[in-house]
Amino acid sequence: MSREREPRHRTAGSSASVRAPRGVCNGEKRLECPVCEKRFTFRGNLETHLRTHTGEKPFECAVCQKKFIHSGHLRRHLRIHTGEKPFECTVCKQQFTQSGSLRMHLRTHTGEKPFECTICKKSFPRSGDLGEHLRIHTGEKPFECAVCKKSFPRSGDLRRHLLTHTGEKPFECTVCRQKFTQSGSLRMHLRIHTGEKAFECTVCNKKFNQSGSLRAHLRTHTGEKPFECSVCKKKFVQRGHLRRHLLKHSGDTHRE
Fold first, then answer.
1. In which family does this protein belong, per the annotation (predicted)?
2. CA angle, corner 108, sides to 115 and 92, nearest 5?
3. Where does 113-166 sit in CATH, by number?
C-alpha cells in the first residue's frame, strides 16, 4: 500500500500553513523548522517535529482512542493493552514494555547511579529520584492533600497520607489478618510472627525487631534521656516511662 502524503501543518493562531521545506539530505542539517529554527537532516524528522508546534496527533490507539505524535509512541502504548514485554533483563529475566524501563532496571544490578545532587553529592539511579531528593534542599512540597491541605514532597507520601483520611488499610498480615495502612508497618509486624530481629546493638549485641526499639535501647548505653516531665523536669529514656510518670502528677493510678 502506498504511503499517504503527510498533511499540511498549521501553527497555533496562524492561518499560514507550516510545511517542511524541501532540502538535500546529504548528512548536513539543511532543513530548518520555520517556528523554532531547529535544524534537521531528514525531511521526515522535520515533519514529525512540526507536530510539537501544531499539536497534531495523527496516530490513534484503536483500543482507547488515545492519540500520539509519533508512530513509535503508539507502538509502545499498545503494549499496555497487549501485555507484551519484549525487553528482558539478562540477569534476573524480569521483562519490560519499554527499553528505557529495562535500562533503569539494570542499574539495580550494576549499582550505577548517574544522577548526582549538586548540593550534597548523593547519587541516584533515576532522574526522577534526584528530582524528588532535591525537594529536601528546596523545601518544595508540591503534593497537597485535598482534605486537610497538608503538603508533601513526593506523590507517594501523599498517597500514604490519604489513607489516614479514608481509613483504608490495604496491607494485610497473612498470619493473623491484622491490617495496616503502610507496607512498612506490615513488614515490622511480620517480625512478631517470624521472630526476626534485624536490628543489633553494636555495644552489647542485643537484637531487636524494630529500629525504634534499638534506638531506645542505645540510650541505656549513652545515658541520653530525651523525654522530660513538664511538671518536675525529671527526664526519661523512653516516652512510655514519661507517660507512666505523668500519671503520678495527675493522680490517676490507671494507665491511659
1. Belongs to the krueppel C2H2-type zinc-finger protein family.
2. 150
3. 3.30.160.60
